[in-house]
Every structure is written in C-alpha cells, then in structure tokens.
C-alpha cells in the first residue's frame, strides 16, 4: 500500500533519491575536512548568537581546510522580512565572516544549491515520497481544533501530549479513506510514522557536550506542512544530507528535538552529521544569570556593535575568549600570533551558558587596538563612518594626517596608553581636537579660582612658544605655578598643603581645560605640537573671554 500511497500523494514527483545522490556527490575534500553551514531564517534580525555560531562554523571549516556555506532557511513565509539576506551577509562580513559557498550578494555560489530552502521544494518532496514509500510517512487530516481537543484529553489522562502511538488515529486510515479525503480537497500534512520508543535511551556524543543520553522519539511530527513546505526538522535533515554537511552547529534549543532528527536520518538511511549544540548567551543582572533577550538587551543585536564601530578583530577575539576557556591563556603566551592559529576545539566550549560581558569586550578591544597601527585604526574608522556617520567621515578625512599623530600619542613604550575601544568612543575620546565641535566642556579644577586662572592663562599665552621642547615647556609651566602661590614641589605640597593654593597638577589642569576643554587628555605638549600655535592661542583666548 505504501507505494500506492506515495504515488497518490506525490504524482508530480518523478525523481528519485538516486538522482539527487548523483547530482550532489560526496565532496572532494580531505578526510578530516569539515563542511559546516549557517542556516539563519530571514527574520530581519541578526544577533550575537548567530555570529557566535557562525564563528564556530567558520573555525571548524577553515581550520580543517573545509568549507562553510550560507543557507537561507526561509520556509516560514510569515516571518520573512525584505532585505534580511543582505543584512545577514553584510553584518557577518562586518565581523569577518565570509562564506565559501551558498547565498551571496552576487547570487548563489556552489554546486550543492539551491541554497534557499524555498527553492528546494522538489528535493524535499522527493525525500518525503521516499519515506512514504518505505511506510514511514502518512497523510494526516487532523485539524488544529482536533489537535487541541486531543491535547485536552491527553492532559486529563495524565499522558504525554502530542500525536503519537494509539493517539495518532490517521495512521490507520485505509487507502480508500485517504482517497476520499483527498477527493474532498481536505487539507493534509505529511507526518512521520515514528518507529521509536522513548523507553529506549541511547548514548550520543555531542561535539560540545560530550556524551549525553537521548531517548528515542515516538512523535509523529509533521514533516510537510499543508502547503507542501517542510518543517525545520525535515528540511535541515534533507539539506544537511544533500549539501554533504559534516558538522552542524546550532543552539541548545534544538537539543529537545534531536531525537526526531536522529530518527529521520536513520529512516532515510543517511549518515548523520556531527552535532554541536552551543550554550545560550547569558548575562548577569542583579547578581543573577539570565539569557540575553531580544526584547530587553540591545547588545544582543549585531547592529549595536556595528553602530558603535567595534573592530572586527576585537569582537572575534572576545568571542574566542567566550568560546574556548583556554583561549585567554593561549593569547597571553602568544601575544602577537594571529588568532587563526589558535587550535579551536568544540570540546573546549562551555555547555552551561556563555556569560557575555560588555566590559570584558571593551577591555579586550583596548588590548587589540593598542597593537594596531594608527593607519589601520583610521582606515577602519573611515569605512565605518562612511556607513554610519557622514559627518564623522568628513572630519576624519579633513584631519587625517593630524589624527595619525594624535592617535599615536602615548601608545608606544613600556606602558602604552590603552584608551581606544570602538569608533564611537574614539571620536568622543579625540572630540576636543575638531574645531567644528570644540567646546570648553569641563570646569576648572577646584583649587584654581577664576581669578587665578586668568593670571595663569595670560602668563601662559605670554610665554607660549610652539618651538619649545617638552622640557622647556614644562619648565615654563613650573615657573607659572611657583610664581602664583601654587607649588611645583609635590613633596612640599603634601607636607604643608595649607601653605599653597594648590600644586602643579592644578595649574596644568587649568591650562588643559583652556586648550582641550577637558580636565583629562593624553600628553598636552604633544597635542599642542599637532594642533599648532594659532589654534592653541585662539582656544586659550576664547576661554579667557568665557571666564572673564
Ligand atoms: N533556521 C534555524 C534557526 O534559525 C537553524 C538551526 C540550525 O542551524 O540547524 O534556528
């Protein structure tokens, strides 16, 4: 009967699995080479979890001379959002992930396509026809209301809910009953006729979790929806088989349905890929750990990092830290080695929740940026601002050569300054430099009165010489300090603070406020050297006018 049923349900399918086996041959790759895929749904939202998974895919593939492909899982029409594919591709590219195969901005690349699930209907239906022929699938006419009623009955009886075993009444339909229903144009779904027994527990090795116990599936889940489109369960099994995927990386939310997937692979007679179920990304809030949430946490969205202009290397470096517990140690031992050389292993990934920490990302960014050249930093800032902030883009272009020098201040030597995190923060950090947006933001230090500031700054203007060396400049500041009731002798100041108005730090801070508008900045003499005499003098005069 099952052959007849298969013909009845899929009269339009004339291909067999053999056809596709030939069309999508085993890949000619090394034995150990891994083929991975990212299978995002085009919902218009791409998040840190996607990037986290994509980086695992990327490392597994490229560390083994394998291939990583992008497959768009667009079987759910209702959730499809225009422009999602571009968003996915561009966002991942921003963070250094580029696919070898699959959907690209210039069309599909590779011999295992189509790479959009919506274009693979025939492959799914051929596979579904095969299952039906084997007697492992049947049409089900049960409506949503009937399913709800069934669930109620099951709850009352205290048994597991779902369509299975004796509850799955459509298993028993005769071919004539099925024909009759089809003739009446009743909508139907194709269900798996499960052969599993949940009493049977199997050992299963997950790439991240190690050995786990999995119970057999017994649910007759829907494999083709009423519109002939497969559910995720069936689609990914068929795709991963025919795309010759060796390693699946996906979120732990799929662990509960893993038994279904194992049964499907088994019944299709296919070898299953290795599964790697990644832990949820968590954050600590009020001392408690919780899952990052799309609704509550803007930092879950990749756009958050793009908009702030985080550097790809920093984000990758941070994710590797999050992904492999031994990464930080390796980085300490190999401070200058490319992260691509780190021996990434899924078995070193945490299975109990990866704790995401923005502060840690910022710290790692500082470490990564301190090793980058100013050219590299500015090049990225130009690219970033071209997309996200045109005003900043023209500022960087206008001041480019000066910024090269400005960013370099204090970044060499034994204890280099680690000030720089991301583009937005860098712009804020050097914001004082641009005449366009310059303002005297900070107030004078507490121990410097307006009257004293006026005297200090007038003397500063009188003695300022752009050609002074740092030493001579500093001597002059000392003189101004000591001749106005402040002291350049810090020891003395500590001993008898009441004998002075303040110390040299107060005086130089007052000067700094006048020149850069802030109480804090990198080395002031160096900044002035880059700014030039005219701008320094103008700014001090402007400040004098402001406080006079
Ligand atoms: N489309 C699925 C998701 O977005 C992919 C899961 C998988 O990688 O298998 O969750």
TrEMBL record:
Broad enzyme group: ligase
Origin: domain of life: Bacteria
InterPro entries for this protein: aa-tRNA-synth_I_cd-bd, aa-tRNA-synth_I_codon-bd_sub2, aa-tRNA-synth_I_CS, aa_tRNA-synth_I_cd-bd_sf, Glu-tRNA-ligase_bac/mito, Glu/Gln-tRNA-synth, Glu/Gln-tRNA-synth_Ib_cat-dom, GluQ/Sye
Start and end residues of each Aminoacyl-tRNA synthetase class I anticodon-binding domain: 501-543
Domain called Glutamyl/glutaminyl-tRNA synthetase class Ib catalytic: residue spans: 35-362
Motif 'KMSKS' region per record, residues: 291-295
UniProt-listed SUPFAM superfamilies: An anticodon-binding domain of class I aminoacyl-tRNA synthetases, Nucleotidylyl transferase
Its EC number(s): 6.1.1.17
Subcellular localization, as worded in the UniProt entry: Cytoplasm
Keywords: Aminoacyl-tRNA synthetase, ATP-binding, Cytoplasm, Ligase, Nucleotide-binding, Protein biosynthesis
The UniProt record lists the keyword Flavoprotein: no
Pfam short name (any one): Anticodon_2
Catalytic activity: tRNA(Glu) + L-glutamate + ATP = L-glutamyl-tRNA(Glu) + AMP + diphosphate
Family to which the UniProt record says this protein belongs: Belongs to the class-I aminoacyl-tRNA synthetase family. Glutamate--tRNA ligase type 1 subfamily.
Subunit description: Monomer.
Annotated function: Catalyzes the attachment of glutamate to tRNA(Glu) in a two-step reaction: glutamate is first activated by ATP to form Glu-AMP and then transferred to the acceptor end of tRNA(Glu).
Official protein name in the record: Glutamate--tRNA ligase
Species of origin: Peptostreptococcus equinus
